UniProtKB/TrEMBL annotation:
It comes from the Bacteria. This is Branched-chain amino acid ABC transporter permease. It holds the Pfam family BPD_transp_2. It is found in: Cell membrane. PANTHER family: HIGH-AFFINITY BRANCHED-CHAIN AMINO ACID TRANSPORT SYSTEM PERMEASE (PTHR30482), HIGH-AFFINITY BRANCHED-CHAIN AMINO ACID TRANSPORT SYSTEM PERMEASE PROTEIN LIVM (PTHR30482:SF20). Keywords: Cell membrane, Membrane, Transmembrane, Transmembrane helix. InterPro entries: ABC_transp_permease (IPR001851), LivM-like (IPR043428). The chain crosses the membrane at residues 20-38, 44-63, 70-89, 95-115, 122-142, 173-192, 226-246, 252-285, 297-325. Its main location: membrane. It is a multi-pass membrane protein.
């Protein structure tokens, strides 16, 4: 059993619990830094895709995982960030200015769109955001002078400090760019959760009535959550556009919104680790299925057969399994396993028992 004896407040708010956990984070960081040397261009591109999904997952995690506001429309904010970044680059702005501006524009538009939805809860908010995701397709087509309509746009190579970065021409440089953005967003997210605003998010998620009784301004807190969530998602959308190279109104469909929500549920709601674990599943599962079909075809001596809807069906099956048997996701399962080893033989299953009813204060709404 590992017991952490805290002697100062700084120990309580630091991102790691003890030296062992810090060493694991450092090993993971070292592996990420060594990835361009260990992987070929194909797998490095897949890892880059996972990091972009992780940024988008952290954007949705702010809103859904830590503020408790369900959203099925974050594909719309991915599209906003993508198009805003490319349009600003076409206007002659340097990437180091256009990229953060794309996130800022997406965050501001997200707050404006969210104002009418601030009084909605649960399924009603999810339906409202889903409608936004569906409408974004028509908005992109109708805004053809800016967005290119159905023909779409092509992402140009970007220059950072005199270094030209292109997804296909310089995959390692592009990986470093995405990795740097991932680290910055992750560190910012960690500090956000330790701030009064981040704790207000969690208070609103657990009980809006109780949070209001403690002095939390509900509408302002939700608006800030929408702003930060949409801004981070906009940054991920800008990177997705550069990663894809070409995109149009069909690139950021409502399916992307559903995949994002599935990703954080499978990874583990309410934790930054969950965003990364879910991104690994979303990013690598299609390739795993493709390799598995080739392996099965070689084993039985036949040709591989394309199965329409296979990926969607597998994603749905995984989601059903986690909702029924492990609602806390992959990270929740890891917490249970770790706690079992730390507390053995005093571990009890009821430690992680789900609450089956609302707080009494929630019945007052």
């Amino acid at each position: 059993m590992r017991i952490v004896f805290k002697t100062s407040y700084l120990q309580d708010i630091r991102p790691w619990k003890h030296g062992y956990q810090l060493s694991l984070y450092l090993i993971l960081l070292a592996l990420a830094l060594a990835a361009p040397l260990l992987l070929d261009d194909f797998y490095l591109g897949e890892l880059t895709n996972v990091l972009i999904w992780a940024i988008a997952g952290m954007g949705l995690m702010v809103l859904t995982g830590h503020t408790g506001q369900a959203s099925l429309g974050h594909a719309a904010f991915l599209a906003l960030g993508c198009y805003a970044n490319i349009i600003l680059l076409e206007q002659g702005l340097p990437f180091l200015l256009a990229f953060p501006l794309a996130g800022l524009i997406t965050g501001i538009l997200g707050v404006i769109i969210a104002i009418p939805a601030l009084r909605m809860h649960g399924i009603y908010l999810a339906i409202a955001t889903l409608a936004l995701s569906v409408l974004m397709d028509d908005i992109i087509v109708l805004s053809e002078p800016l967005t290119g309509g159905v023909a779409g746009k092509f992402a140009p190579p970007v220059s950072v400090l005199g270094i030209e970065i292109d997804r296909w021409g310089t995959p390692r440089a592009f990986y470093w760019l995405v990795f740097a953005v991932t680290v910055i967003v992750t560190l910012g997210y960690i500090n956000l959760l330790r701030s009064p605003l981040g704790r207000s998010f969690i208070a609103v998620r657990d009980s809006e009535v109780s949070a209001q009784a403690m002095g939390v301004h509900i509408a302002r807190t939700k608006a800030m959550s929408f702003f930060l969530s949409c801004a981070i998602t906009g940054l991920a959308g800008a990177l997705m556009g550069l990663f894809a190279g070409a995109f149009n109104n069909e690139t950021f469909s409502v399916v992307i919104s559903i995949l994002l929500l599935m990703m954080i549920v499978i990874g583990g709601l309410g934790s930054i680790h969950g965003a990364f674990l879910g991104a690994v599943v979303i990013g690598f599962l299609p390739q795993f299925l493709s390799i598995s079909k080739e392996w099965v075809g070689a084993l039985i001596g036949g040709n591989t057969v394309a199965i329409p809807g296979l990926e969607t069906g597998v994603f749905g099956l995984i989601l059903i399994v986690f909702v029924l048997f492990e609602p806390m996701g992959i990270y929740g399962r890891w917490l249970k396993i770790r706690t079992w080893f730390e507390l053995f033989p005093f571990y009890r299953r009821d430690m992680f028992k789900r609450q089956k009813s609302y707080l009494k204060t929630e019945r007052l709404r």
